[in-house]
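Suppose a classmate hands you a notebook page containing two proteins, each written out with its sequence and a corresponding row of structure tokens. How would you begin to make sense of it? This section walks through that situation. The first entry is reproduced here exactly as it would appear on such a page.
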Amino acid sequence: QVQLVESGGGLVQAGGSLRLSCAASGISVSINTMGWYRQAPGKQRELVANIISRGSTNYVDSVKGRFIISRDNAKNTVYLQMSSLKPEDTAVYYCNVKVLPYYGVDYWGKGTLVTVSS
């Protein structure tokens, strides 16, 4: 059974930092595509960052230079280090895994709320 458990969300002032964690079980973070998505109130869920099996990373333009996605294969955990946070980063952040080879199988965590105050 695949489980993704996010942690690390909370309330932070603008300009602050948070680190989100996604602990995976039942699936390996090292050989699948791992991603962080977010959904703000009234908006669609969007991809924030992902990391593929070879370690390459991708970011949405709005977080480039501020967020870093990484993984610890030994801990089977993916992280999202968020710095210089802005109020517009406020959202529920979800961990996602795309099972490779990708035939449309995704798993999601339940999400963790990040609130950035101005």
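The notebook's second entry, a different protein, reads as follows.
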Amino acid sequence: QVQLVESGGGLVQPGGSLRLSCAASGNIFRIYAMGWYRQAPGKQRELVAAVTRSGSTNYAGSVKGRFTISRDNAKNTVYLQMSSLKPEDTAVYYCNAEITPIADTTSTYWGQGTQVTVSS
């Protein structure tokens, strides 16, 4: 069974920084793209950033230049370094990954979400 477990959320003042982590565990054969999504109250879930297995990245325009996504394939972990945080970054952040489990087909997996609140 494959699981994604996020950590690193919390309360931060505007202009501050946070680092989110998401570790995949279980019967994993290979992990392809990994990413972070967020969902603010009353809004649809949106892509924040994604990274391919080879390290190519993609960012939402609203976070480009402030957030950095990275991954450690040896640890099956993806990170999101968030800087210059704004109140509008407040949301539940979800980890997402395309994973092929051992002896199974590739599927999309989601973490449970971690709250990020940007407020003074």
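A careful reader of the second entry would note: The chain has a mean pLDDT of 97.
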